[in-house]
Amino acid sequence: MEDDKDTILLTADLGWASFDQLREKYPDRVLNMGLSEQAMVGVSGGMAKMGKNVFVYSIIPFMLYRAFEQVRDDVCYPDLPVRLVGTGAGLSYGDAGSTHHPFEDLRIAAALPNMTVLSPSDPKEVEVLTEQTRNIKHPVYMRLGRNGEPVLHDKHNQIRIGKALKLTEGKEVLIVSTGVVTGTALEAARVLNAEVLEIHTFKPFDEEAVRKEAKGKSVIATVEDCTGALEERVAKALAGAGSEYKPLAFKFPDQFTHISAKSEYLLEHYGISANNIVEQVKKAMA
Amino acid sequence: MTNSQDLSKIARELRKELIVKHMQTKMAHIGSDFSCLNALVTLYMKVLDKDDRFVLSKGHAALALYAVLHRAGIMSDEVYGTLGQEGSMLGEHPLYGIKGIEFATGSLGHGLSLAAGMALAKKLNGEKGIVYTLLSDGECQEGSTLEAMNFIARQQLENLTCIIDANKWQAYDRTLLPADKLEKEFKGGGWEDIRQVDARKFDELQSALTDPKRRGPRLIISNSVLAMGVKEMEDQLQWHYKPPTKEQAEQFLASLDKEE
Ligand SMILES: [Mg+2]
After folding, report:
1. Which of B38, B76, B104, B134 counts the most CB atoms within 10 A of its CB?
2. Rounded CA gap, A33 and B154, in Å?
3. pTM, whole model, 2 decimals?
4. B103 CB near a chain A CB, below 8 Å?
5. How far apart are CA A230 and CA A223, in angstroms?
C-alpha cells in the first residue's frame, strides 16, 4: 500500500490484530465497513470505477455468498479490478462449523465471467500471487486458509498466474492439488514418489499442463477441500486426451458437516489425508 | 418563459416520446419512467456538470434515462434509434457499456452502494463534483440499501445526493415505506440534510438538488405518483407492467396535448 496511493482495503469487521498496523498507518485507506458485506462489495465496485485498486476482505461465505449478486453485477459484469480476498477456504475453519466452510466456492467463483480464481497453498504463494494481481485489471477472487499455514515448497519464483506449478517429479502417479490441502498431497507424494501439480490458479485453468503431465501416468489423483470442483475440472481437461489412467478423487463429500472438530480431524475424517491417499493409490496400482 | 416552464415543456415532450416508445417496444415500467422523469430532466438539464456523476439505481426506469440522455445530447440519435431492436444495447434495464450510464442496474438495492464507492473515491482523490443516485421507494427495503445508507452517514459523504422517487407503489403493493417513514429511517441512520419535495414542481426539485449549503450527505425524497403526468394513467399499478396499446397511446398523447 506504501507505493500505491490508490490502493484501498475494505473489510467487513474482520482483521483484528492483522490489519491494525496497516490501519494505523493508512486510516483513510483501510476501512472497516462494519457487518455490511453487500454494501462493501457494491462500494468496491464504485471505487474501482473511479480508478481505485480495491481489496475486499472477509470470511468467504459472508463475502462471496451473501454478497454474491454484488460480486456478479457490481464487480464482474463491469469487469472492474477488485480483489476479493476471502479467508477460511474449505474446512480450514474447522470447529467453526458448516456456516464457515466454503466447500463450493471454487465452482461458484469460477462460474462468473471475467473472474480470475486463485487458490494458493501457502503464505508465500499468497504474497507472490497478490503481487502478480497488480497486472490484472479485472476481478480476482483469492481464497486463503485460516492463518499460520506453513510454507510448503521453494518454487515460489516459478509462480505465474494461469500456469500450473509442478512441485515434485514422479513417473507413475500424478497428484493434482489446489489450496491449503496441497500440503497433504506433498506428504503423500513423498511416500509414493508421485508428481504433484499444483493448481494455484483455478480459473483460467491450465488444461495444457494437466494434459502434458498426465501423459504416461497410471493413476491420477485430485486433492482438494471442495466437493469435486478440481476433480471435474481435471477430468474435463483430460477428456478425449487419450490417456488411460485410474482416477482417484480426495475431496469433501456433497454434504454439510455434522461433526464439530478441528480442520485436521475433519480432513482426515473425509479421507483427505496423506495416509488415505497413499493407501488408495497403492490399491489402484496393485 | 421561466425556468420551470422550460423544464415542464421538455418533460411533456419526453412523456409523449416515451408513450410512443413503450407502445412500439412493448417494454414495461412506463409508470416508473414517469414518476421519476421530472427529477431526471432537472438533473440533466440544470444540475449535472462535468465533475458530477449519476447512478440510476432504479434501473427499471431505463427508458426515461435514455430519453433524457438523448435529449441532453449525451446519447446519439443512432444509439437511441436502436431502442426496441433485437441486438440493441438499450435494454429494459441498462446493459453495461452504454455511454453516459455508469452501471448496469436493474436488480434493486445496488445503486446506493455504488454511488457511495464513487463518492468516497472522489473524496479521497480530492476531486470536485457530486455523485447523485436515484432510488425507488421500494428498494429502500433492501438490506443492501440500508447498509449503504448507514455507511454513507458514518463516512459523512457530503459529496453524495440520494434522490428517492417516492411514487407510493412497489411491484405488488402500496409502498411499505412511505415518505415520512423513509425520512425517519435515514434520519435515524445519521443523515441530517433531508428534504421532501413535490416531484411536480421543477423549482422545488432544482433548489433541493442545487442548494450549496450541505450538511453531510443529502437525501431528497421526491414525492411523486406512479405514471405521473398523464391524468388517465396516474396512480395505477398496471403501468408498472403494461405498455400502452395503440388506442391508449393515442388517448394519452391527446391528453398531454390538451395541457399545452
Ligand atoms: Mg415505487
Report:
1. B38
2. 9
3. 0.95
4. yes
5. 8
Give me ligand 1 centre to Cα A151, in Å. Answer: 55
Give the integer Cα–Cα distance in Å for A105 and A225: 10
Spell out the domains of chain A, with CATH numbers in brackets: 7-144 (3.40.50.970), 157-285 (3.40.50.920)
Q: In what order do the strands lie in the sheet with A30-32?
A: A30-32, A7-11, A53-59, A82-87, A140-143, A116-118, A201-203
pLDDT by residue, tens only, chain B of 260 residues: 568 889 999 999 999 999 999 999 999 999 999 999 999 999 999 999 999 999 999 999 999 999 999 999 999 999 999 999 999 999 999 999 999 999 999 999 999 999 999 999 999 999 999 999 999 999 999 999 999 999 999 999 999 999 999 999 999 999 999 999 999 999 999 999 999 999 999 999 999 999 999 999 999 999 999 999 999 999 999 999 999 999 999 999 999 999 87
Q: List the single residue in A with minimal CA-CA distance to B97.
A: A78
Nearest CA in chain A to B96: A78
Could you please state the CATH topology (level 3) that the domain comprising B4-258 is classified under: Rossmann fold (3.40.50)
Q: Which of B:135-154 have CB within 8 Å of A? A: 143-144, 147-148, 150-151, 154
Interface ipTM above 0.90 = yes
